[in-house]
Amino acid sequence: xxxxxxxxxxxxxxxxxxxxxxxxxxxxxxxxxxxxxxxxxxxxxxxxxxxxxxxxxxxxxxxxxxxxxxxxxxxxxxxxxxxxxxxxxxxxxxxxxxxxxxxxxxxxxxxxxxxxxxxxxxxxxxxxxxxxxxxxxxxxxxxxxxxxxxxxxxxxxxxxxxxxxxxxxxxxxxxxxxxxxxxxxxxxxxxxxxxxxxxxxxxxxxxxxxxxxxxxxxxxxxxxxxxxxxxxxxxxxxxxxxxxxxxxxxxxxxxxxxxxxxxxxxxxxxxxxxxxxxxxxxxxxxxxxxxxxxxxxxxxxxxxxxxxxxxxxxxxxxxxxxxxxxxxxxxxxxxxxxxxxxxxxxxxxxxxxxxxxxxxxxxxxxxxxxxxxxxxxxxxxxxxxxxxxxxxxxxxxxxxxxxxxxxxxxxxxxxxxxxxxxxxxxxxxxxx
Length: 432
Known about the structure:
The chain has 432 residues and is an alpha+beta fold. It has three domains: 8-134, Schlafen, AAA domain (Methyltransferase, Cobalt-precorrin-4 Transmethylase, Domain 2), CATH 3.30.950.30; 195-361, Heat Shock Protein 90, CATH 3.30.565.60; 369-431, Orthogonal Bundle (Arc Repressor Mutant, subunit A). The chain has 15 helices and 18 strands. It has helices spanning 18-28, 49-63, 122-134, 150-158, 165-170, 182-187, 218-232, 252-265, 297-301, 310-318, 328-335, 361-368, 375-386, 391-398, 402-414; strands spanning 8-11, 31-35, 64-65, 72-79, 82-89, 98-99, 110-113, 116-119, 195-200, 208-214, 235-240, 243-248, 274-278, 282-288, 344-347, 351-357, 418-421, 428-431. It has a six-stranded mixed β-sheet, covered by helices on one side. Helix 12 packs across helix 14. The longest helix is centred in the first third of the chain and has 15 residues, at 49-63. The chain is flat, with a radius of gyration of 28 Å.
């Protein structure tokens, strides 16, 4: 006798609604779904159970976030000469799970309540996120308990902050049982993670100029890496009016904050290194793990932030490495406000990448162009090296006025040398 209850769901046939039942069980409790049995316990069977099983596998894999493949078991069973599909769902650890096409909101998150699946409220979703975060990597017990903290203690001493066994507990470096947590592992001299830097000649990865890997406490890594990058952050002098102004290739705040963000917010469940690449015209830093669920890149611009490693963020805040929570990305963008170039921020499920552009690069490009080229030829040569150009760059490249730059670009459009892309302030040009 089959009957719907807290742990059982009956379905006559396979439909897309099956996903919300699976999500509900994963978010609430173990459950079983029978496909091919009606609400009155009658075994109806499925016309093509094999085809339905394949479709169901795709729904679970592609239609639900995060991946529930490891927490579900699906198979065909023959009862009374009729094929049905049985779906076993385990309550899963990384809640909340949600429908991929609906997102992390009430319409996408379901819970099991009695014999029905209901939408979760925003309050419940937030609670699940907090509970999931409390079981995060940094709070778990470190597998290595033979840790030393020479660099950490020296750093705290230099900042006038007392550090002792009691403070270790307060900062969650040790837990209530005096065991080192993974946060302790990250801050220890034995930290197994690293940052890999590569300096390249030109704007591609064909030729190395230098490379280094930084290890040890994450506090040591951030200091050593920044010092290394600062050596390559050249200063150019520019005469503005009667005054000379020295301008670094990369705004120092942007360089420092992008490095701190990568260390503080990366997903340490992945063992790979943070990767930094420095080219002639730009700098890239890639950390493992995308944004925390429920947070978008748009949220970052407005100062909304949810740290994956809040205890680590607190350490950096206490040391005044970061000035306040949630303002990093906005201030990186602000540091580029007076330039025509803007940082690029890319996010995927497994990586977060920040690209900063060398604000002095157009001046370097101008110097290497042959002096006997026409204005149009200089633009073409620039585009061969940089792929796209805008009016501001043309003004700087050719040392002409806004009106003259527009005239040259319009002439090249008429002659089918260039193609215009975008509109308004976002217009740029590429070779036709």
